[in-house]
Amino acid sequence: MTSPLLSRRNVLLGGLGVAATAALAACTSSPGSTGTPSRTFGTPTPIPPSPGQKLIEKTLTAKPVTLDLGGRQVSTWAYGDVAPGPLVRATAGDFLRLTLDNQLPADTTIHWHGIRLRNAADGVPGLTQDPVKPGAQYVYEFTVPDPGTYFFHPHVGVQLDRGLYAPMVIDDPNEQGGYDAEWIVVLDDWIDGTGTTPDAVLKKLIADGGTASSGDMGGMDHGSMGGMSMGAGPWGDAGDVTYPFFLVNGRPPTDPEVLTAKPGQKVRLRIINAASDTIFTVALGGHRMTITHTDGHAVQPSEVDAFYIGMGERYDAVVTLKDGAFPLVARPFGKTSGGQAMALVRTAGGAAPGADVTPPELSGQVLIGSQLQPAESAKLPAKAPDATVDLNLQGSMKPYRWGINGAQFGKNEPLTVTAGQRLRINAVNMTMMTHPLHLHGHTFALPSGLRKDTVLMAPMQSFAIDLDADNAGDWMIHCHNIYHAEAGMMIALEYAK
Ligand code: C2O
Ligand code: CU
Protein backbone atom coordinates (compact mmCIF):
# COMPACT_ATOMS: atom_id res chain seq x y z
CA MET A 1 0.00 0.00 0.00
CA THR A 2 1.35 3.40 -0.85
CA SER A 3 -0.59 5.39 1.68
CA PRO A 4 0.95 8.86 1.83
CA LEU A 5 0.75 8.51 5.58
CA LEU A 6 2.75 5.31 5.65
CA SER A 7 5.44 6.73 3.45
CA ARG A 8 5.56 9.80 5.65
CA ARG A 9 5.89 7.58 8.65
CA ASN A 10 8.76 5.76 7.04
CA VAL A 11 10.81 8.87 6.53
CA LEU A 12 14.12 8.85 8.30
CA LEU A 13 16.09 12.02 7.90
CA GLY A 14 19.76 12.71 7.72
CA GLY A 15 22.75 10.43 7.33
CA LEU A 16 22.24 9.01 10.80
CA GLY A 17 18.74 7.97 9.85
CA VAL A 18 19.94 6.07 6.80
CA ALA A 19 22.67 4.43 8.80
CA ALA A 20 20.10 3.58 11.41
CA THR A 21 17.90 1.87 8.84
CA ALA A 22 20.78 -0.39 7.91
CA ALA A 23 21.62 -1.06 11.53
CA LEU A 24 18.02 -1.73 12.42
CA ALA A 25 17.54 -3.94 9.38
CA ALA A 26 20.46 -6.04 10.56
CA CYS A 27 18.68 -6.80 13.81
CA THR A 28 16.90 -10.07 14.25
CA SER A 29 15.50 -9.66 17.72
CA SER A 30 12.01 -10.97 18.28
CA PRO A 31 9.14 -9.37 20.17
CA GLY A 32 9.04 -10.04 23.86
CA SER A 33 12.76 -10.64 23.96
CA THR A 34 14.16 -7.37 22.71
CA GLY A 35 17.67 -8.47 23.36
CA THR A 36 17.30 -8.15 27.13
CA PRO A 37 20.65 -9.10 28.62
CA SER A 38 20.36 -12.38 30.44
CA ARG A 39 21.59 -11.33 33.86
CA THR A 40 20.25 -13.13 36.90
CA PHE A 41 19.62 -11.58 40.28
CA GLY A 42 18.05 -14.10 42.64
CA THR A 43 15.83 -13.15 45.56
CA PRO A 44 16.24 -9.52 46.62
CA THR A 45 17.93 -8.97 49.96
CA PRO A 46 15.34 -7.64 52.42
CA ILE A 47 16.16 -4.20 53.75
CA PRO A 48 14.63 -2.72 56.89
CA PRO A 49 13.17 0.79 57.09
CA SER A 50 15.44 3.31 58.80
CA PRO A 51 14.58 4.22 62.41
CA GLY A 52 11.64 6.62 62.43
CA GLN A 53 10.61 5.85 58.86
CA LYS A 54 6.95 5.05 58.42
CA LEU A 55 6.36 1.64 56.83
CA ILE A 56 3.61 1.22 54.24
CA GLU A 57 2.81 -2.37 53.29
CA LYS A 58 0.53 -3.69 50.58
CA THR A 59 0.12 -6.76 48.43
CA LEU A 60 -0.75 -6.36 44.77
CA THR A 61 -2.19 -9.43 43.12
CA ALA A 62 -1.80 -9.54 39.37
CA LYS A 63 -4.44 -11.90 38.00
CA PRO A 64 -6.85 -12.62 35.15
CA VAL A 65 -10.22 -10.86 35.57
CA THR A 66 -13.35 -10.05 33.63
CA LEU A 67 -14.23 -6.37 33.51
CA ASP A 68 -17.46 -4.68 32.53
CA LEU A 69 -16.92 -1.78 30.13
CA GLY A 70 -20.36 -0.20 29.92
CA GLY A 71 -22.06 -3.59 29.45
CA ARG A 72 -19.29 -5.14 27.35
CA GLN A 73 -17.47 -7.97 29.18
CA VAL A 74 -13.76 -8.16 28.50
CA SER A 75 -11.28 -10.61 29.94
CA THR A 76 -7.98 -9.11 30.88
CA TRP A 77 -5.29 -8.97 33.57
CA ALA A 78 -5.41 -6.50 36.46
CA TYR A 79 -4.08 -5.79 39.95
CA GLY A 80 -7.00 -7.12 41.98
CA ASP A 81 -10.53 -7.16 40.61
CA VAL A 82 -10.62 -3.86 38.74
CA ALA A 83 -8.56 -1.56 36.54
CA PRO A 84 -7.05 0.76 37.54
CA GLY A 85 -5.75 -1.27 40.48
CA PRO A 86 -5.60 -0.07 44.09
CA LEU A 87 -4.10 3.32 44.88
CA VAL A 88 -0.75 3.18 46.65
CA ARG A 89 -0.44 6.28 48.80
CA ALA A 90 2.38 7.39 51.07
CA THR A 91 4.13 10.53 52.29
CA ALA A 92 7.52 11.60 50.96
CA GLY A 93 10.18 9.88 53.06
CA ASP A 94 8.08 6.79 53.82
CA PHE A 95 9.33 3.24 53.33
CA LEU A 96 7.24 1.04 51.07
CA ARG A 97 7.12 -2.74 51.17
CA LEU A 98 4.99 -3.79 48.23
CA THR A 99 4.52 -7.45 47.46
CA LEU A 100 3.69 -8.53 43.94
CA ASP A 101 1.71 -11.78 43.95
CA ASN A 102 1.83 -13.09 40.41
CA GLN A 103 -1.33 -15.06 39.67
CA LEU A 104 -0.94 -14.47 35.93
CA PRO A 105 -0.11 -17.24 33.47
CA ALA A 106 2.99 -15.22 32.48
CA ASP A 107 6.11 -13.67 33.94
CA THR A 108 5.67 -10.12 35.17
CA THR A 109 7.25 -7.32 37.26
CA ILE A 110 6.18 -3.95 38.62
CA HIS A 111 7.87 -0.68 37.68
CA TRP A 112 7.11 2.34 39.90
CA HIS A 113 6.95 4.94 37.17
CA GLY A 114 8.63 8.24 38.00
CA ILE A 115 9.77 7.31 41.50
CA ARG A 116 13.43 8.08 42.24
CA LEU A 117 13.93 4.77 44.05
CA ARG A 118 16.78 2.38 44.69
CA ASN A 119 17.77 0.60 41.50
CA ALA A 120 17.05 -2.90 42.82
CA ALA A 121 13.34 -2.03 43.15
CA ASP A 122 12.90 -0.56 39.67
CA GLY A 123 11.17 -3.59 38.20
CA VAL A 124 13.04 -4.08 34.92
CA PRO A 125 13.62 -7.79 34.23
CA GLY A 126 17.15 -8.56 33.11
CA LEU A 127 18.38 -5.18 34.29
CA THR A 128 17.34 -4.90 37.95
CA GLN A 129 15.63 -8.21 38.80
CA ASP A 130 14.60 -11.61 37.51
CA PRO A 131 11.13 -11.84 36.00
CA VAL A 132 8.56 -12.94 38.57
CA LYS A 133 7.27 -16.39 37.54
CA PRO A 134 3.61 -17.42 37.58
CA GLY A 135 2.62 -18.31 41.15
CA ALA A 136 5.64 -16.52 42.64
CA GLN A 137 5.83 -13.44 44.83
CA TYR A 138 8.33 -10.62 44.80
CA VAL A 139 8.87 -7.97 47.46
CA TYR A 140 9.71 -4.42 46.41
CA GLU A 141 11.24 -2.32 49.21
CA PHE A 142 12.12 1.32 48.71
CA THR A 143 11.92 4.81 50.12
CA VAL A 144 9.81 7.35 48.23
CA PRO A 145 11.85 10.57 48.35
CA ASP A 146 9.69 12.97 46.34
CA PRO A 147 6.05 14.02 46.52
CA GLY A 148 3.89 13.83 43.44
CA THR A 149 1.54 11.93 41.17
CA TYR A 150 2.88 8.63 39.84
CA PHE A 151 1.64 5.23 38.70
CA PHE A 152 2.87 1.68 38.39
CA HIS A 153 2.73 -1.00 35.74
CA PRO A 154 4.60 -4.12 34.57
CA HIS A 155 7.86 -3.78 32.67
CA VAL A 156 7.35 -6.96 30.66
CA GLY A 157 6.28 -7.00 27.03
CA VAL A 158 3.10 -5.08 26.28
CA GLN A 159 1.41 -5.99 29.59
CA LEU A 160 0.84 -2.29 30.27
CA ASP A 161 -1.85 -2.38 27.56
CA ARG A 162 -3.88 -4.82 29.65
CA GLY A 163 -5.53 -3.65 32.87
CA LEU A 164 -2.23 -3.79 34.78
CA TYR A 165 -1.85 -0.22 36.01
CA ALA A 166 -2.70 1.74 39.15
CA PRO A 167 -2.11 5.21 40.57
CA MET A 168 0.49 6.07 43.17
CA VAL A 169 0.37 9.34 45.13
CA ILE A 170 3.18 10.60 47.33
CA ASP A 171 2.00 13.40 49.59
CA ASP A 172 4.12 16.38 50.50
CA PRO A 173 4.36 16.70 54.30
CA ASN A 174 4.94 20.45 53.91
CA GLU A 175 2.18 21.22 51.48
CA GLN A 176 -0.50 23.71 52.41
CA GLY A 177 -3.22 21.89 50.48
CA GLY A 178 -5.64 24.71 49.89
CA TYR A 179 -8.18 22.62 48.02
CA ASP A 180 -11.43 20.99 49.13
CA ALA A 181 -11.19 17.70 47.28
CA GLU A 182 -8.80 15.64 45.23
CA TRP A 183 -9.69 13.45 42.27
CA ILE A 184 -7.37 10.92 40.69
CA VAL A 185 -8.10 10.62 36.99
CA VAL A 186 -6.45 7.72 35.17
CA LEU A 187 -6.73 7.69 31.37
CA ASP A 188 -6.40 4.58 29.22
CA ASP A 189 -6.85 3.26 25.70
CA TRP A 190 -8.47 -0.18 25.71
CA ILE A 191 -8.27 -3.13 23.32
CA ASP A 192 -7.62 -6.23 25.49
CA GLY A 193 -10.36 -8.84 25.41
CA THR A 194 -12.17 -7.22 22.48
CA GLY A 195 -11.35 -10.08 20.13
CA THR A 196 -7.61 -9.59 20.48
CA THR A 197 -4.86 -9.06 23.04
CA PRO A 198 -1.97 -6.58 23.19
CA ASP A 199 0.42 -9.43 22.32
CA ALA A 200 -1.59 -10.21 19.19
CA VAL A 201 -1.68 -6.51 18.33
CA LEU A 202 2.11 -6.29 18.56
CA LYS A 203 2.53 -9.44 16.49
CA LYS A 204 0.32 -7.97 13.79
CA LEU A 205 2.16 -4.65 13.83
CA ILE A 206 5.45 -6.46 13.34
CA ALA A 207 4.04 -8.77 10.66
CA ASP A 208 2.21 -6.11 8.68
CA GLY A 209 3.37 -2.66 9.81
CA GLY A 210 0.72 0.00 10.04
CA THR A 211 -2.40 0.05 12.14
CA ALA A 212 -3.69 -2.75 14.33
CA SER A 213 -7.37 -3.01 15.14
CA SER A 214 -9.40 -4.98 17.61
CA GLY A 215 -10.75 -8.25 16.27
CA ASP A 216 -14.28 -6.97 16.11
CA MET A 217 -13.48 -3.84 14.15
CA GLY A 218 -12.62 -5.39 10.85
CA GLY A 219 -8.96 -6.05 11.47
CA MET A 220 -6.15 -4.48 9.54
CA ASP A 221 -6.90 -1.80 7.03
CA HIS A 222 -3.81 -0.24 5.60
CA GLY A 223 -5.66 1.59 2.86
CA SER A 224 -7.62 3.80 5.19
CA MET A 225 -5.24 3.44 8.12
CA GLY A 226 -8.13 1.99 10.11
CA GLY A 227 -9.38 5.34 11.29
CA MET A 228 -6.00 6.96 11.86
CA SER A 229 -5.41 10.40 10.52
CA MET A 230 -2.93 13.18 10.70
CA GLY A 231 -4.30 15.20 13.57
CA ALA A 232 -4.39 18.94 13.39
CA GLY A 233 -1.99 19.94 16.11
CA PRO A 234 1.58 19.55 17.20
CA TRP A 235 2.03 15.77 17.25
CA GLY A 236 1.87 14.83 13.58
CA ASP A 237 0.90 11.23 13.22
CA ALA A 238 -1.48 9.56 15.65
CA GLY A 239 -0.62 6.28 17.36
CA ASP A 240 -0.32 2.86 15.77
CA VAL A 241 -3.30 1.03 17.25
CA THR A 242 -7.04 1.50 16.67
CA TYR A 243 -8.74 1.19 20.05
CA PRO A 244 -12.45 0.47 20.48
CA PHE A 245 -12.61 2.17 23.92
CA PHE A 246 -11.05 5.02 25.83
CA LEU A 247 -11.49 5.01 29.60
CA VAL A 248 -11.37 7.29 32.63
CA ASN A 249 -10.79 5.29 35.80
CA GLY A 250 -11.67 2.10 33.96
CA ARG A 251 -15.02 3.30 32.63
CA PRO A 252 -16.19 4.24 29.14
CA PRO A 253 -18.11 7.50 28.53
CA THR A 254 -21.38 5.58 28.18
CA ASP A 255 -21.07 4.55 31.85
CA PRO A 256 -18.85 7.28 33.19
CA GLU A 257 -17.20 7.79 36.53
CA VAL A 258 -19.14 10.53 38.36
CA LEU A 259 -16.99 12.94 40.35
CA THR A 260 -19.07 14.97 42.78
CA ALA A 261 -18.41 18.15 44.75
CA LYS A 262 -20.20 21.34 45.73
CA PRO A 263 -20.34 24.45 43.53
CA GLY A 264 -17.50 26.81 44.41
CA GLN A 265 -15.29 24.05 45.77
CA LYS A 266 -11.68 23.93 44.71
CA VAL A 267 -10.57 20.53 43.44
CA ARG A 268 -7.13 19.17 42.76
CA LEU A 269 -7.05 16.83 39.78
CA ARG A 270 -4.23 14.31 39.50
CA ILE A 271 -4.33 13.20 35.88
CA ILE A 272 -2.32 10.17 34.77
CA ASN A 273 -2.03 8.89 31.21
CA ALA A 274 -1.71 5.10 31.55
CA ALA A 275 -2.51 4.54 27.86
CA SER A 276 -0.11 2.57 25.69
CA ASP A 277 -0.48 4.33 22.34
CA THR A 278 -2.64 7.44 22.85
CA ILE A 279 -1.90 11.09 23.51
CA PHE A 280 -4.98 12.82 24.91
CA THR A 281 -6.20 16.42 24.95
CA VAL A 282 -7.85 17.00 28.33
CA ALA A 283 -10.53 19.63 29.00
CA LEU A 284 -13.20 20.24 31.61
CA GLY A 285 -16.31 21.70 29.97
CA GLY A 286 -17.22 25.17 31.26
CA HIS A 287 -13.94 25.62 33.15
CA ARG A 288 -10.37 26.69 32.77
CA MET A 289 -7.80 24.69 34.72
CA THR A 290 -4.67 25.84 36.52
CA ILE A 291 -1.79 23.42 35.98
CA THR A 292 0.32 23.24 39.15
CA HIS A 293 2.59 20.18 38.70
CA THR A 294 3.84 17.85 36.04
CA ASP A 295 5.46 14.46 36.71
CA GLY A 296 5.43 15.30 40.43
CA HIS A 297 7.29 18.61 40.15
CA ALA A 298 5.81 22.05 40.80
CA VAL A 299 5.48 24.48 37.89
CA GLN A 300 4.64 28.16 37.74
CA PRO A 301 0.84 27.91 37.86
CA SER A 302 -0.52 28.15 34.35
CA GLU A 303 -4.17 28.64 33.46
CA VAL A 304 -5.29 26.79 30.34
CA ASP A 305 -8.43 25.71 28.47
CA ALA A 306 -6.99 22.27 27.83
CA PHE A 307 -3.68 20.41 27.77
CA TYR A 308 -2.01 17.51 26.00
CA ILE A 309 -0.92 14.49 28.01
CA GLY A 310 1.38 11.84 26.58
CA MET A 311 1.67 8.22 27.66
CA GLY A 312 3.39 8.09 31.05
CA GLU A 313 2.96 11.82 31.77
CA ARG A 314 1.11 13.22 34.80
CA TYR A 315 -0.40 16.67 35.34
CA ASP A 316 -1.93 18.12 38.48
CA ALA A 317 -4.51 20.85 37.94
CA VAL A 318 -6.61 22.95 40.28
CA VAL A 319 -10.08 24.09 39.32
CA THR A 320 -12.87 25.96 41.09
CA LEU A 321 -16.10 24.26 40.17
CA LYS A 322 -19.20 25.93 38.75
CA ASP A 323 -22.77 24.88 39.36
CA GLY A 324 -24.02 22.02 37.21
CA ALA A 325 -22.91 18.86 35.38
CA PHE A 326 -19.76 19.07 33.25
CA PRO A 327 -17.84 16.68 31.03
CA LEU A 328 -14.20 15.99 31.87
CA VAL A 329 -13.07 14.89 28.42
CA ALA A 330 -9.85 13.24 27.24
CA ARG A 331 -9.93 13.32 23.46
CA PRO A 332 -7.53 10.89 21.76
CA PHE A 333 -5.15 12.91 19.62
CA GLY A 334 -5.42 12.12 15.91
CA LYS A 335 -7.67 9.09 16.32
CA THR A 336 -11.02 9.17 14.61
CA SER A 337 -12.65 6.00 15.90
CA GLY A 338 -13.35 4.64 19.36
CA GLY A 339 -14.83 7.90 20.64
CA GLN A 340 -13.20 9.56 23.62
CA ALA A 341 -12.61 9.14 27.33
CA MET A 342 -14.95 11.03 29.65
CA ALA A 343 -15.91 11.37 33.28
CA LEU A 344 -18.78 13.42 34.62
CA VAL A 345 -18.17 16.25 37.08
CA ARG A 346 -21.32 17.00 39.01
CA THR A 347 -21.96 19.81 41.52
CA ALA A 348 -25.73 19.98 40.94
CA GLY A 349 -28.59 18.14 39.27
CA GLY A 350 -29.42 18.53 35.62
CA ALA A 351 -28.90 16.60 32.43
CA ALA A 352 -25.56 14.89 31.94
CA PRO A 353 -23.63 15.68 28.76
CA GLY A 354 -23.58 12.91 26.16
CA ALA A 355 -20.69 10.50 25.63
CA ASP A 356 -19.58 12.29 22.47
CA VAL A 357 -19.77 15.86 23.81
CA THR A 358 -17.15 18.31 22.53
CA PRO A 359 -16.43 20.97 25.14
CA PRO A 360 -15.42 24.24 23.43
CA GLU A 361 -12.30 24.30 25.64
CA LEU A 362 -10.86 21.50 23.46
CA SER A 363 -10.37 24.01 20.67
CA GLY A 364 -9.25 26.80 23.00
CA GLN A 365 -5.75 27.40 24.28
CA VAL A 366 -4.23 23.90 24.53
CA LEU A 367 -1.05 23.65 26.57
CA ILE A 368 1.99 21.72 25.39
CA GLY A 369 3.40 20.59 28.73
CA SER A 370 7.08 21.04 27.87
CA GLN A 371 6.36 24.78 27.55
CA LEU A 372 5.48 25.09 31.25
CA GLN A 373 7.96 27.00 33.39
CA PRO A 374 9.39 25.35 36.50
CA ALA A 375 8.70 26.56 40.02
CA GLU A 376 11.91 27.88 41.62
CA SER A 377 11.84 24.96 44.07
CA ALA A 378 11.87 22.43 41.20
CA LYS A 379 14.97 23.73 39.43
CA LEU A 380 18.27 21.89 39.37
CA PRO A 381 21.10 23.96 40.82
CA ALA A 382 22.86 25.88 38.03
CA LYS A 383 25.81 23.87 36.74
CA ALA A 384 27.48 23.24 33.40
CA PRO A 385 27.24 19.65 32.15
CA ASP A 386 30.21 17.41 32.98
CA ALA A 387 29.43 15.03 30.14
CA THR A 388 27.24 14.92 27.05
CA VAL A 389 25.67 11.99 25.23
CA ASP A 390 23.49 11.72 22.13
CA LEU A 391 20.16 9.95 22.08
CA ASN A 392 18.58 9.55 18.65
CA LEU A 393 15.06 8.16 18.36
CA GLN A 394 14.73 6.23 15.12
CA GLY A 395 12.55 3.71 13.38
CA SER A 396 9.79 3.02 10.96
CA MET A 397 6.28 1.63 10.73
CA LYS A 398 7.09 -0.69 7.84
CA PRO A 399 8.97 -2.70 8.87
CA TYR A 400 7.66 -2.09 12.39
CA ARG A 401 10.96 -1.56 14.10
CA TRP A 402 12.03 1.16 16.50
CA GLY A 403 15.39 1.92 18.03
CA ILE A 404 17.69 4.36 19.77
CA ASN A 405 21.18 5.27 18.60
CA GLY A 406 21.16 3.07 15.55
CA ALA A 407 19.81 -0.20 16.86
CA GLN A 408 17.05 -1.87 18.81
CA PHE A 409 17.37 -2.32 22.56
CA GLY A 410 19.79 -5.10 23.39
CA LYS A 411 21.78 -4.31 20.25
CA ASN A 412 22.45 -0.66 21.08
CA GLU A 413 25.29 0.55 23.27
CA PRO A 414 24.13 1.56 26.76
CA LEU A 415 24.67 5.20 27.65
CA THR A 416 27.07 5.64 30.55
CA VAL A 417 27.46 8.20 33.28
CA THR A 418 29.70 8.59 36.32
CA ALA A 419 28.12 9.17 39.72
CA GLY A 420 28.09 12.85 40.62
CA GLN A 421 28.10 14.10 37.04
CA ARG A 422 25.62 16.50 35.52
CA LEU A 423 24.83 14.62 32.33
CA ARG A 424 23.43 16.35 29.26
CA ILE A 425 21.46 14.12 26.91
CA ASN A 426 20.99 15.57 23.45
CA ALA A 427 17.75 13.85 22.51
CA VAL A 428 16.64 14.05 18.88
CA ASN A 429 13.46 12.57 17.43
CA MET A 430 14.48 11.57 13.92
CA THR A 431 11.09 10.08 13.05
CA MET A 432 7.75 11.44 11.86
CA MET A 433 5.93 10.22 14.97
CA THR A 434 5.70 11.69 18.45
CA HIS A 435 7.40 9.72 21.22
CA PRO A 436 7.00 10.23 24.99
CA LEU A 437 10.60 9.86 26.19
CA HIS A 438 10.79 8.42 29.71
CA LEU A 439 13.75 8.11 32.09
CA HIS A 440 13.86 5.77 35.09
CA GLY A 441 15.20 6.62 38.53
CA HIS A 442 15.77 10.35 37.92
CA THR A 443 13.99 13.39 36.66
CA PHE A 444 15.60 15.54 34.01
CA ALA A 445 15.48 19.27 33.37
CA LEU A 446 14.51 20.72 30.00
CA PRO A 447 16.46 23.82 28.88
CA SER A 448 13.83 25.97 30.65
CA GLY A 449 14.59 24.14 33.89
CA LEU A 450 11.24 22.33 33.81
CA ARG A 451 11.59 19.01 35.61
CA LYS A 452 10.00 15.93 34.04
CA ASP A 453 10.52 12.20 33.77
CA THR A 454 8.45 11.83 30.61
CA VAL A 455 8.40 14.35 27.78
CA LEU A 456 6.55 14.35 24.47
CA MET A 457 8.93 14.77 21.55
CA ALA A 458 7.16 15.83 18.37
CA PRO A 459 8.43 14.67 14.95
CA MET A 460 11.96 16.01 14.38
CA GLN A 461 11.97 17.81 17.72
CA SER A 462 15.09 17.87 19.86
CA PHE A 463 15.71 18.63 23.53
CA ALA A 464 18.90 18.98 25.52
CA ILE A 465 17.93 17.38 28.81
CA ASP A 466 20.07 17.51 31.94
CA LEU A 467 20.14 15.14 34.86
CA ASP A 468 22.18 14.81 38.01
CA ALA A 469 23.66 11.33 38.31
CA ASP A 470 22.73 10.89 41.96
CA ASN A 471 21.11 7.44 41.91
CA ALA A 472 23.56 4.70 40.98
CA GLY A 473 22.43 1.67 39.04
CA ASP A 474 21.32 0.49 35.64
CA TRP A 475 18.32 2.38 34.34
CA MET A 476 16.10 2.45 31.29
CA ILE A 477 15.38 5.31 28.94
CA HIS A 478 12.62 4.53 26.47
CA CYS A 479 9.62 5.59 24.48
CA HIS A 480 6.46 5.19 26.55
CA ASN A 481 4.48 4.05 23.55
CA ILE A 482 4.60 0.47 24.77
CA TYR A 483 4.52 -0.94 21.23
CA HIS A 484 7.51 1.20 20.22
CA ALA A 485 9.35 0.24 23.41
CA GLU A 486 8.75 -3.45 22.83
CA ALA A 487 9.77 -3.10 19.17
CA GLY A 488 13.13 -1.79 20.37
CA MET A 489 12.86 1.90 21.30
CA MET A 490 14.71 1.60 24.61
CA ILE A 491 18.27 2.08 25.79
CA ALA A 492 20.04 1.52 29.11
CA LEU A 493 21.74 4.26 31.12
CA GLU A 494 24.48 2.68 33.22
CA TYR A 495 26.62 4.15 35.96
CA ALA A 496 30.34 3.52 35.51
CA LYS A 497 31.39 0.96 38.12
CU1 C2O B 1 6.36 3.63 32.80
CU2 C2O B 1 9.98 2.10 31.78
O1 C2O B 1 8.15 2.87 32.23
CU1 CU C 1 7.58 5.96 20.40
From TrEMBL:
It comes from the Bacteria. Residues 28-50 are annotated as: Disordered. Pfam families: Cu-oxidase, Cu-oxidase_2, Cu-oxidase_3. Keywords: Copper, Metal-binding, Oxidoreductase, Signal, Sugar transport, Transport. SUPFAM superfamilies: Cupredoxins (SSF49503). This is Sugar transporter. Residues 1-25 form the signal peptide. Residues 28-44 have a biased composition (Low complexity). The keyword Methyltransferase does not apply. InterPro entries: Cu-oxidase-like_N (IPR011707), Cu-oxidase_2nd (IPR001117), Cu-oxidase_C (IPR011706), Cu-oxidase_fam (IPR045087), Cu_oxidase_Cu_BS (IPR002355), Cupredoxin (IPR008972), CuRO_3_CopA (IPR034279), TAT_signal (IPR006311). Residues 70-174, 246-335, 385-494 form the Plastocyanin-like domain.
